[in-house]
Amino acid sequence: MIAPSIRVKICGLSHEEDIEAALMAGADYIGFVFFPSSPRHVSLSKAHQLSKRVKNAQKVVLTVDASDRELEQIVDEVKPDLLQLHGDESPQQARALSQKFGIPIMKAIGVSSPEDLTRVGDYDGSVSQFLIDAKPSSGQSSLPGGNGLAFDWQLLNDWRADREWMLAGGLTALNVRLAIKQTGATQVDVSSGVEISPGQKCGQQIAAFVNAAKGKNHES
């Protein structure tokens, strides 16, 4: 039986053709990365132009410990539907940003052990949903996400979220159905898993991932 209502986020898009590929495939979220250290980073002017191409999907902006001024500029230029915080932003900061901009907040939580999931409770009342991602170990990467790393999905066996959440970390068209089945996720996020090189998306891989995640031509 095909699992219903799986929503897909394609993150780190930086070219018009990649946005078109994601939308054509049926992606539900289009993600833009604002983090200079990332190969997927986009400038404000480019993001402004790219955001105009997003139709019938939610625009998500990913930031990492951005300043208030940076966030103001990003929100003004892109007008996102969702703000993804992927740094060390506190629950108080998340709540303040949601109130300031009137935008739902998604907080990324890096996971490598059961203890990491306890951080979710700290953000009760501060965010609308969570991104549960792989947590790079020391020396693995300087990036908080988009590293193509998966975590042990069994860590989520006894975890229950009280709000929406999205699964990320090392997902590809080949493993996303298994990830959904094992974790019960109804939302999945991919970036490096649809790339031919860091920051360079592949339209065919985007389509394959969305089709696999949504169960098209696949059995769960």
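Above is the first protein from milestone M3; the second protein from the same milestone is given next.
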Amino acid sequence: MSARKKEKPPHIQVTLTTRGLRALTQDDAEKLAFIPGGQLFDLVPVTKRSDRQLRTYWKALGLVVKVTQKWPTAETLHRDIKMTLGYREQVVNMRTGEITLVPDSIALDKMDHEDFCNFMNQAMALIADTVGFDPLAFLNEDHAA
């Protein structure tokens, strides 16, 4: 009895559209074409943080800092946003027992795509309420011109 290596099924990525599932690339479509009808699949949603989305976030913060001059840097505004929205944790001084609040991280390995989308939506709404304009709308207008 020979030990046969079990063949792995092809890795196929699909995206969910209003019409149903669609192969992500031409290669995925070709792999899918060779699978017989009625095949059962286990689908696992893939969420990936977008570098482009993160760049847009920082660009919006930079714009707010430049236009309003209420914060010295985008990093300062970012810290204030996290603190205001409750993205913070308690740190205890081991000598005094004093509790201090510090901002949480939004690093790629700390916050998934869905959580970052929620954070960014809240942050942009907070900024709009605080400074009187939506920085994303302003960026879109600037980009369209």
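Note on the second protein: The mean pLDDT is 86.
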